[in-house]
Amino acid sequence: MADEQKTEHPVDPPVDRARRMAALRGAERVLSGHSLALTIGDRLARLAAEAPEAYDLGEGVDIYGDGVVEELERRVAGLLGMEAAAFFPTGTMAQQVALRCWAGRTGSPVVAAHPLSHLEVHERNAYATVSGLRMVHPTSDPRPPTAEEIRELDEPFGTLTLELPLRDAGFVLPTWEELTEVVAAARDRDAVVHFDGARLWECASHFGVELPEIAALADSVYVSLYKSLDGISGAVLAGPSSFVEEAKAWRHRYGGTLFQQWPVALAGLAGLDRELPRLPAYVAHAKVVAEALKDAFRAAGVPWFRVHPDVPHTHQFQVWLPYPPEALTAAGVRLAEETGTWVFNRWDAAPVPGLAVTEVSVAASALAWTPAAVRDAVGALLERLDRPDGGGGGAPVG
Question: What residue stretches are annotated with the Aromatic amino acid beta-eliminating lyase/threonine aldolase domain (predicted)?
Answer without folding.
Answer: 65-295
